[in-house]
Design a protein that fits this description.
The protein has 404 residues and is α+β, with helices and mostly antiparallel strands. The protein folds into two domains: 39 residues, no CATH class; 299 residues, no CATH class. The protein is built from 14 helices and eleven strands. The strands form five sheets. The chain has a three-stranded antiparallel β-sheet with strand order 3-2-5, with no helix packed on it. It has a two-stranded antiparallel ribbon with strand order 1-4. Strands 6-7 form a two-stranded antiparallel sheet. Strand 6 and strand 7 form a beta hairpin. Helix 7 crosses helix 8. The protein binds heme C (2 copies).
Length: 404
């Protein structure tokens, strides 16, 4: 039975088995319950419609690499997290594979996420639980009183070509507006460098916007998640035995394969939007969600993929870093981002995601909104405004967001 059909049947069975509705269920739970009934029948792994035949061929080849399970002979390892892109981005979405980042507070017991956090080990903060190619010791960090571990759920990869295409000037415009604004919502550009480059670029990819391009991010994923070196990241990722190569001597993946994978991601379509513009969209602005989750940004006219060039990109992010407070902090410094900062998550195809926020702590959109609140979070006012809405209004807003 296809996975979706089975999931649908299981959901229906679970719904039938549930006890009759308890009259004490409060309004918020009712909103969340109605959210849980959303059933999806569409797909998120399709190419953009306007591809030329040779682009479509490239898309299919890249798709093959994205699904491929790399083996020891291909250069997997020595230490790695998963052996395939699709292990962590199934159907181009989120999970099931995750990445675990581990930091340590300073021995003097610094208060939550201020200056005193550092990677859990000299080998970094990223666990690599599997070994191959002669390695015997995985990279794992034991728990301890000063240890904080965060599981990062992968973002989806669909619609990311559109994020790459957004004009720098648009992001700079939003950063200036943020700097001039009175009030708690700030937002700043992540300025990052490609390895060996002197010029700074705008970080767009990754949960902390550490990577400026899809090519760079893909090479990082191959390297850090799968232990596959490429001309862009030619040295093996840290491993406890200090091994500097694996079963495939030298660089494991060609630049052409990195580009094929990146092009595959570039050519993925934006999933169809099901939200009607109306009351929900209006409330999204009124409550202040749209200040960070900017509904639309203009793309570059010279972006190489014609479908994404010179269009309004409805991506619902400003691509800026925001201080989300102690509640969401993971203590990790990465690229230009600090321990409490995150890139505004693009609200794209949310119905394809199994759980929300960087660590998947929120099972519903209502819960994701509430988790924006915390000491020092720029989003506190928006959460308060959401909570102050009546039931109907809250429902309309959530319905709008669910369909993005
Ligand atoms: C072990 C799990 C894992 C594997 C394998 C993996 N990813 Fe990811 N991916 C993640 C996580 C986690 C993130 C978020 C990265 C971060 O900031 O920590 C991510 C982020 C991304 C992003 C950025 C999305 C955004 O919104 O910024 C792209 C693009 C991506 N991955 C592509 C790939 C490709 C291509 C491969 C295969 C070469 C791959 N990933 C393999 C877990 C994985
Ligand atoms: C101050 C900026 C800011 C405001 C205001 C804000 N958000 Fe967010 N939002 C973020 C950031 C940053 C993240 C990523 C946080 C994380 O992953 O821990 C995020 C994540 C999310 C997610 C999870 C997306 C995913 O991929 O898991 C949803 C849903 C969401 N926001 C909806 C909203 C709604 C609805 C509102 C208005 C009530 C809102 N946000 C207001 C910055 C903001």
């Amino acid at each position: 039975m296809p996975r979706r059909t089975r999931a649908l049947l299981l959901a229906l069975l679970a719904a039938c088995a549930r006890a009759p509705e308890d009259s004490t269920v409060d309004a918020v739970e009712a909103v969340e319950a109605s959210e849980a009934r959303v059933v999806r029948t569409d797909r998120a792994d399709l190419p953009v419609a306007e591809l030329e035949p040779e682009q479509l061929t490239r898309f299919r080849e890249g798709d093959g690499l994205f699904e491929a399970v790399y083996r020891e002979v291909d250069g997997l390892g020595p230490a790695y997290i998963r052996a395939s892109c699709s292990d962590c981005h199934r159907e181009d979405g989120r999970g099931p594979g995750v990445v675990t980042r581990v930091v340590q507070t300073s021995p003097i017991g610094a208060s939550l996420v201020q200056a005193g956090w550092s990677p859990a080990s000299p080998l970094g903060d990223t666990e690599r639980p599997y070994v191959t190619a002669g390695a015997t010791i995985p990279l794992l960090f034991p728990d301890g009183p000063e240890i904080r571990r965060t599981q990062r759920l992968p973002p989806a990869v669909f619609g990311r070509g559109l994020l790459e295409a957004i004009a720098d000037a648009e992001i700079e415009r939003l950063a200036r507006a943020a700097a001039d604004r009175d009030g708690p919502v700030r937002g700043r550009i992540a300025r990052v460098r490609l390895p060996g480059a002197s010029e700074e670029l705008i970080g767009r990819f990754g949960l902390k916007a550490a990577a400026p391009t899809l090519t760079d991010f893909t090479a990082r994923a191959l390297h850090g998640d799968m232990g596959l070196t490429s001309p862009l990241y030619p040295e093996e990722a840290p491993n406890p035995e200090g091994l500097t190569d694996d079963a495939k001597p030298g660089v494991d993946v060609t630049l052409e394969d990195v580009e094929l994978l990146a092009d595959y991601v570039r050519m993925l379509a934006l999933p169809t939007r099901t939200s009607a513009r109306g009351e929900g969209a209006r409330l999204f602005e009124e409550v202040g969600c749209a200040t960070c989750h900017t509904p639309s940004l203009r793309t570059r006219p010279d972006y190489p993929l014609a479908a994404w060039a010179d269009v309004d990109a409805f991506v619902y992010t400003d691509l800026l870093l925001h201080d989300m407070g102690d509640g969401l902090a993971d203590g990790v410094r990465e690229g230009d981002a600090g321990p409490r900062e995150w890139r505004t998550a693009p609200l794209i195809g949310l119905r394809f995601l199994p759980a929300y926020l960087h660590d998947g702590r929120a099972p519903t959109i209502a819960a994701a909104i509430r988790e924006h609140r915390g000491p020092g979070s720029e989003a506190n006012d928006a959460v308060a405004a959401f909570d102050a809405l009546g039931d109907e209004a809250r429902r309309a807003l959530i319905e709008f967001v669910s369909g993005l």
